[in-house]
Amino acid sequence: MKSLRVNLPDRTYDIEIGSNILGNIPAFINDKGYSNRFYVIDNNVYDLHREKLEEIIAGDGFLVIGTGEENKTFSNLEKILSSMVEAGLDRKSVLVAVGGGVTGDICGLAAALFMRGISAVQVPTTLLSQVDSSVGGKTAINLSGIKNIVGAFYQPDKVFIDIDFLKTLEKKEIMSGIGEIAKYGFIVDEDYIDYLQNNLERIEKLEDEYLLEIIFKSVDFKAQIVEKDEKESSIRKILNFGHTVGHGIELMKNVDITHGEAVAAGMILEGIIAFNRGNISKEYLQEIISLCRRIYLIPDFTEYEIDIIIENTKHDKKNVGDSINMVLPVSRGAVESFDGVTIDEIKECFRSWSNDYK
């Protein structure tokens, strides 16, 4: 088992990473002395791990919700909050989120809103949520076709990362997580790029040693960044490499793509923009493409589809006014945030992908 601590001015909490650690949750909850406990579990996880979860819940209240971005809505948020009221939760209660990023995001927001804030515990069950969304306190729902536009920064009391959940995931979901994992190498540590390139097959095979290593390293990278900039006013923005164009693709209704695959696609296309600007070498661009295309191969989009993707990027929360903000690589293992990325630059990166790199 591995663990690390996130140290913030208003909240310090631990992240526990290991195999078969679900049994540690009741002891933690009892030690904290919460007045009441309520669990929200995504339906896939509940179906696959029902017996184990019901042992942990042990008679406490719980609600099973759907998975997928389409479930991050006001109506589902209201459903969770109403269930919390019915369960008799008060200000000293705890909400435990068990599931992927959708469950963690919407439950974190529910905990932030209920009685102006109660305790939350995150139990992420996908590789993507384990290395990214469960750490750092970002909570949100979608609105009007815009991803994560309604939310709050709200840190949990603890995060339990049990790698046994990963053994029941489809390969597509594992590769989705690897998309976010690869991002950490590109933004903060070029040695991590080498580690992933050398061990990607072992990670895909879910070998425990390599899973524990990449999850711990990824979470540690993110925790260090969050400690320096909890509410994304400066350095935390670098975590958005691949996300501006990636979110634009992810919001396309006719594209079957996971969040991590969208990030991988975004890193390729934003890498092309960086190369076209003279920020990085052709050799490094090819390295980004080589790793990310193992996660997701970008299709050829029509001009109409590219226009929709660009329109989607305009809703990105980093943008101010009409200026499109984008995190771009500047050297191997380093990125910077740039304002004023143009629509023509984004269109050109799609053309370059189809004509020169695919």
Task: Spell out the blueprint of helices and strands.
Layout: E1 2-7, E2 12-18, H1 24-32, E3 37-42, H2 43-57, E4 61-65, H3 74-86, E5 94-99, H4 101-113, E6 119-124, H5 127-133, E7 138-143, E8 146-153, E9 158-162, H6 171-188, H7 190-204, H8 208-228, H9 243-250, H10 259-276, H11 282-292, H12 303-313, E10 324-331, E11 334-341, H13 343-357
Parallel strand pairs: 2-9, 3-4, 3-5, 5-6, 6-9
Antiparallel strand pairs: 1-2, 7-8, 10-11
Please give the CATH class of the largest domain. Answer: Mainly Alpha
Q: How many strands appear in the DSSP assignment?
A: 11
Shape: globular
Q: Detail the poorly predicted runs.
A: none
What CATH architecture of the largest domain would you give? Up-down Bundle
What do the pLDDT scores average to? 94
Quaternary structure classification: single chain
* Share of β-strand residues: 15-25%
Main-sheet strand order equals: 1-2-9-6-5-3-4
Helix content: 40-55%
Radius of gyration: 20 Å
Spatial separation of the terminal alpha carbons: 41 Å
Q: How many distinct domains?
A: 2
